[in-house]
Amino acid sequence: MTTRRALFAVAGAGLLLAACASTQNHSAHPPIVFVHGNGDSASIWQTTVWRFEANGWPRERLHAIDLPYPLARDDDTKAQPGRTSTGEHMAFLKAEVDKVMKATGARQVVLVANSRGGYAVRNYVQNGGGSQTVSHAVLGGVPNHGVWAIKGFREANEFAGTGPF
Questions:
Q1: Are 60 and 104 in contact (CB under 8 A)?
Q2: Phi, psi angles (nearest 5°) of residue 34
Q3: pLDDT in tens, 119-129
Q4: Contacts for 101 with CB less than 8 Å, ≥ 6 apart
Q5: Burial code of 118-149, b = ≥16 C-beta within 10 A, e = fewer?
Q6: Fewest Cβ atoms nearer than 10 Å: which of 6, 45, 88, 157?
Q7: What is the pLDDT of residue 79?
Q8: Helix, strand, or coil here: 60?
Q9: Neighbour-count burial of 91, counting CB atoms closer than 10 A to its CB (0-12 exposed, 13-18 middle, 19+ buried)
Q10: Taken in order 112, 147, 39, 141, is the CA torsion positive or negative?
Q11: Is the Cβ–Cβ distance between 59 and 27 less than 8 Å?
């Protein structure tokens, strides 16, 4: 009887060790793309990425992206040096999502965004094909109804609650 218990204990321990050594199920860990806000950079997501890793998310499935020229234009319809329009912002996000899907082999990603990054996510899902490539979107601190809503005041800015965006 003691030999039988020892045999079961060794077999059970072996199964547990084998489970720990096996490759992770990536379908349980979809790739996550973290999108920063107005004037920020990917570095704001460093602590968040660490927390995901600490909770078992594979590092190669976590992607904090740097958007070029992260500041919004004063007027979305007029070019402005060092700033991007809503369309440019969305196009860059789309390109980054495509890169992540190609690198990971995933068919969809999760988007996590803050502030202006949420505008790009919302625009991509609604107008840029993201409804097919995004499984979930988490938007934090996104001014969905604008930062200001003053008729006649900078209404062409993407942060205007009375504007077209």
A1: yes
A2: -100, 125
A3: 999 999 999 99
A4: 31, 107, 108, 109, 133
A5: bbbbbbbbeebebeebbeebebeebbeebeee
A6: 6
A7: 97
A8: helix
A9: middle
A10: negative
A11: no
Q: Quote the CA–CA distance of 165 and 160 in Å, as a whole number.
A: 8
Residue 82's identity, in one-letter code, is G
Tokens of 81: 């040096």
Q: What is the CA radius of gyration of the chain?
A: 22
Averaged confidence pLDDT in the chain: 87
Cβ atoms within 10 A of the Cβ of 90, count? 23
82: phi > 0 → left, psi -120 to 50 → alpha, else beta; which? left
CA 146, CA 72: separation in Å to the nearest integer?
A: 13
Q: What is the rounded CA–CA span in Å between residue 131 and residue 137?
A: 10
Q: Is the pLDDT of residue 133 over 60?
A: yes
How is domain 27-140 classified at the CATH fold level? Answer: Rossmann fold (3.40.50)
Question: What ranges do the domains of the chain cover?
Answer: 27-140
In terms of C-beta density within 10 A (0-12 exposed, 13-18 middle, 19 or more buried), how is residue 107 classed? exposed
Q: What is the pTM of this model?
A: 0.82
Q: What DSSP character marks residue 137?
A: E
Helix ranges, the chain (H): 2-21, 46-54, 86-104, 116-127, 130-133
Using alpha carbons only, give the angle 8, 12, 18 rounded to the nearest 5 degrees: 145
